[in-house]
Amino acid sequence: MSSSSLTFAARDIGTTSIPQTVTLTNSGDAILTISGETFSGANVGDFPIEANSCGSSLAAGANCTLTISFDPTASGARSATLQIMTNAASSPDNIQLMGTGN
Fold it and tell me: How far apart are CA 69 and CA 39, in angstroms?
């Protein structure tokens, strides 16, 4: 995973940030099975996935991307966690998402 956290600049409520991208890389020598992504935390609706090129599997040595934006629904600190579930020993991989609504 290219990053374990994404921090978005402060945004006015109801406006969407420029998306940020996280790259998932299969550094193993077998196919990586991706069983899904889930959100948890207080503000999951503030961090939409704009694009997901990962599919359900990733070949050895390949990578894919998740593009996430920040669209605050209230003022103050906003946060959520995106979990990516795979058949890797490190699963689930967590990405902390943070931003501030104005």
Answer: 14
For 40-66, the pLDDT digits (tens) are 999 999 999 988 998 899 999 999 999
Query: Sheet of 63-68: strands edge to edge?
Result: 20-25, 63-68, 49-52
pLDDT of 65 reads 92
Q: How confident is the model at residue 10 (pLDDT cuts 50, 70, 90)?
A: very high
Q: Are strands 5-7 and 57-58 parallel, antiparallel or unpaired?
A: unpaired
Within 8 A by CB and 6+ apart from 30, the residues are 60
